[in-house]
Structure prediction request, 220 residues.
Amino acid sequence: MDVNHGLGEFEQLVLLALVRLGAEAYGVAIRDEIEREAGRDVTVGAVYTTLLRLENKGLVASRLGDPTPQRGGRRKKYYRPLAAGKRELAASVNALRRMTRGLTPGLELP
Amino acid sequence: MDVNHGLGEFEQLVLLALVRLGAEAYGVAIRDEIEREAGRDVTVGAVYTTLLRLENKGLVASRLGDPTPQRGGRRKKYYRPLAAGKRELAASVNALRRMTRGLTPGLELP
DNA sequence: GTCCATTTCTCCGACAAAGTCGAGGAAATA
DNA sequence: TATTTCCTCGACTTTGTCGGAGAAATGGAC
Prediction:
């Protein structure tokens, strides 16, 4: 009964990071990916909160990984986008693409 | 004292509509532009609230237009992005572009 | 001409949703 | 058991959303 009103900006970013990272998508890696690619500085806490909400909305799923053989190698929790998540993401990305169609990086209209 | 953390999704959309509409950017036209281009259904109230917040943050400015010679032609309030607004918008749009670089409309990685 | 219904547009107040942070806890290794 | 890596939780701020009220203008009935 909740015909979803689209993704927030950060949810979009997190979902995109999931797509980009593929099998390697877990909390810390996601944070790093966003910082590296989007140039945006966020805390891991923010990422986890968002991940949890996305999971509650049925847009992503998670699974626990095995412990890695390194100091402090705690089990990671990997995330992947579900079909509904991909659909939502594609919709909002494409909306953005339409809105920015024909705009230069400086936002001029050619 | 407020090292700004970027724009929300809707703020982004409204700002983009301003850029696209140029001199014709006022409340109702902005709503229509977003509906037409982004395919997203919003109320005018939502747009005004966002516009007001953007103005308070110094990202857009407004001026009153003249009454138009048509039934109910109340004076419009035109908005335009300020330098800081364009900067913010360009930053978040470019971040999105980097994150979606190489992704198909269906979000596959080629 | 005067009223008032109608149209166009803007403002406001309240609430829901998303975003953010920081401290703290669990599990693994050395 | 000290250290490292990662995840959870709770509190709070910022954004997003709506619906209805209000202001300004016109057109027509009388």
Chain A has a mean pLDDT of 88.
